[in-house]
Write a structure and sequence with these properties.
The protein is built from eleven helices and no strands. It has about 270 residues and is mainly alpha-helical. The model has no long low-confidence stretch (mean pLDDT about 90).
Length: about 270
């Protein structure tokens, strides 16, 4: 008999096992909601599925009486614009700085320590500084995402440069490649799949910084809406918004994984 550590579930069993925790959570929630609503029909902590559906319909498909907007989609567009802008800037900085720090000793000696120190600063601690210096507009929110995820991504990519087989570097130099040719023709192609993985790992923190910034100073966005309706204990709105944020983050991660497998299949095989 094979040991449990060496056994892999089949596709169907794997799907069942993956779905089981989600089903259990739903069952537990429905049982707790029914129990609380049975004691107090006006309870707001654990709304019924009907209350959820009504809130989703109201936020996503009914125009707001004050602004005339479909609030869920307006909030989603605002948050995604901030998030994607911050991640794009962070990815560009991480790729350039990570490549230089990892490959060039002089740059590593100069910038490595300061990047390591910046990576240790809690990004939310500098949020008031960003609001004071950059104002309460979009720039400060995007800057928080950039400052929050870039240093960690830079360090990760710099470490990945060290994993490039030294034989490749030596062969390129033997063929007469200059430093910039080495960076562009050898190091950069090897780092691109690592960059996508780094962005995937940064999605969670990026969403955290976005929600925090929107909760403090914003007039639209998913984080803004969640913290706005909490004043009224509107769990029928908060929980669907949290589920929607989770779905967006999961979808982004899945798309990046598909992109990595399509563009860099050799990296996935390795």
């Amino acid at each position: 008999m094979r040991r449990l550590i060496n056994r892999e579930p089949g596709r169907l069993l794997g799907f069942v096992l993956a779905a089981l925790p989600f089903v259990l959570l739903v069952v537990i929630y429905l049982a707790a909601s029914e129990a609380r609503l049975g004691l107090n029909p006006d309870d707001k902590l654990l709304p019924s599925p009907a209350a959820f559906m009504d809130a989703i319909h109201r936020m996503a498909f009914v125009e707001d009486q004050r602004s005339g907007d479909l609030l869920l989609w307006k909030d989603t567009a605002a948050s995604l614009q901030r998030l994607l802008s911050g991640l794009a800037i962070a990815a560009a900085l991480a790729l350039s700085l990570g490549t230089l720090i990892g490959a060039i000793p002089y740059v590593r000696t100069t910038l490595g320590p300061i990047i390591a120190v910046i990576a240790m600063i809690p990004p939310l601690a500098i949020l008031p500084i960003l609001f004071i210096t950059l104002g309460l507009g979009e720039v400060a929110k995007v800057a928080l995402i950039v400052l929050g995820v870039t240093p960690v991504m830079v360090r990760d990519l710099a470490f990945r440069v060290a994993e490039i087989p030294n034989e490749l570097i030596l062969k390129a130099q033997t063929l007469g490649a200059s430093t910039w040719q080495l960076l562009l023709r050898v190091v950069l192609p090897m780092l691109l799949p690592k960059l996508i993985r780094a962005v995937r790992l940064a999605l969670g923190p990026a969403w955290l910084f976005l929600i925090a910034a929107e909760a403090i100073a914003s007039t639209e966005g998913l984080g803004y809406r969640v913290f706005l309706v909490r004043r009224f204990l509107a769990m029928d709105v908060i929980l669907p918004y949290v589920a929607w944020i989770t779905l967006l983050a999961f979808t982004m991660d899945w798309l990046l994984g598909r992109l990595n497998r399509r563009l860099f299949a050799w990296s996935e095989r390795a």
